[in-house]
Amino acid sequence: MRVAVVNAGSSSLKLSVVDEDDQATELATLADVGAVEADAVGHRVVHGGERFTEPVVIDAEVERALADLVALAPLHQPAALDGVRAAREALPGVPQVACFDTAFHSTMPAAASTYAVPRTWGVRRFGFHGLSHQWAARQAAPLGPRVVSCHLGAGASLAAVVDGRCVDTTMGFTPLEGLVMATRSGTVDPGLVLWLLAQRGMSVEEVGDGLEHHGGLVALAGTSDMREVLARVDADADAGARLAFDVYVHSLCRHIGAMAASAGGLDVLVFTGRIGERAAPVRDAVVDRLAWLAPFETVVVESREDLVIAHAVRTLLS
After folding, report:
1. Is residue 82 in a domain?
2. What is the pTM of this model?
3. SS3 label, residue 217
4. Residue 193 CB partners (closer than 8 Å, separation 6+)
5. Torsion of CA 173, 11, 239, 194, to 10 degrees
6. How far apart are alpha carbons 233 and 256 in whole angstroms?
7. Are 15 and 4 in contact (CB under 8 A)?
8. pLDDT of 78-105, one tens digit each?
9. Are residues 55 and 199 in the same domain?
10. Residue 154's domain spans which residues?
11. Does 120 reside within a domain?
12. Dihedral, CA atoms, 112, 113, 118, 120, nearest 10 degrees?
């Protein structure tokens, strides 16, 4: 089964066709999907909510349910839905399957997935980047059972994985919680948000825009590109870049420590994603600062969400 994979991220759109031998051919645009032979289309969908914990064939009812989750992942969900509509037009009649970033984290115990807030709010921690964490943890498994996976891209998160099952992660109800990211703040004191609303007179939209689009690296260094941050640090160009790097690494180390605690120890630390794979100074700084932990292996794994999606599509449809 040849599977066309549509992977819409917060700052990128990756398209490929994965053949029966797991060889992937990259595509330039969604229009190119219609020019290739594909038996099915698999979509990375960031948020599946509580309902979707397994891949599912997309029909009109599922599409409406995914649209209802846009408010929980405003940087990602609309792009995924655009991909569904474009693929339907390019490949009419070909089955489309949604594969969810939240699904891998559905194995978290209640202690890790529960917020200590009034139960009537009906909220919980979901976690994201599950397709990437699943692949990275699977590649690291031969080196030990307790893995902390670091997916570092425009969005960034960690997962604590024990014997292949996720037991904790840094993102929560939305992809805003956790690590410092490219344009997202990561975790902040909720009291700060209340103060901005009540004392500064800011609107919900203004605060949300600041946390989603103007936080993280761009808030501290004026750029969301880690390559530029590292170049400016190397050149000793400005204090903002150095602060951005230090805050980013501090956030990583702090949360890796928490994930190692959730896993009951650390056997393997895995880096994946664009920054995780390419930014050696980030990896080196993190490993140096974690030298106090018991010895652990460090590996870099190329992110292959496309293969995870293709395998899931084949399993579901066959």
Report:
1. yes
2. 0.94
3. helix
4. 207, 211
5. -30
6. 23
7. yes
8. 999 999 998 999 899 999 999 999 999 9
9. no
10. 125-300
11. no
12. -160
**Residue showing tokens 């066959």:** 318
- How is residue 155 written in tokens? 């969005």
Sign of CA dihedral 310, 312, 317, 318: positive
Asked whether residue 142 falls in the same domain as residue 275, the answer is: yes
Residue holding tokens 């030990």?
A: 144
Domain co-membership, 66 together with 163: no
User: How confident is the model over 218-250, as pLDDT tens digits?
Assistant: 999 999 999 999 999 999 989 999 999 999 999
Q: Is it the case that residue 31 has pLDDT exceeding 80?
A: no
Question: Domain of 181: which CATH number?
Answer: 3.30.420.40
* Runs of H (alpha helix) within the chain: 60-67, 77-90, 110-113, 130-140, 190-198, 204-213, 216-221, 226-234, 239-263, 273-278, 280-289, 305-317
CA 306 to CA 132: how far, in whole Å?
A: 9
- List residues bridging with 40 in a β-sheet: 3
Tokens of 5: 């994979």
Domain count, the chain: 2
Instruction: Return the number of other C-beta atoms located less than 10 Å from residue 91's C-beta.
Output: 19
Give the three-state DSSP class for 80.
helix
Contact call for residues 114 and 124 (beta carbons, < 8 A): yes
Are 88 and 142 part of one and the same domain? no
Instruction: Output DSSP code: residue 11.
Output: S
How many Å apart are CA 266 and CA 150, to the nearest integer?
13
List the catalytic residues.
101
Residue type, 147: V
The secondary structure of the chain in percent helix, strand, coil, rounded to multiples of 5, reads 45, 20, 35
Beta bridge partners of 56: 98
Q: For residue 193, which amino acid is it?
A: V
Rounded Cα distance, 29 and 16, in Å:
10
CA distance 74 to 289: 34
Cα 309–Cα 95–Cα 72 angle in degrees, nearest 5: 55
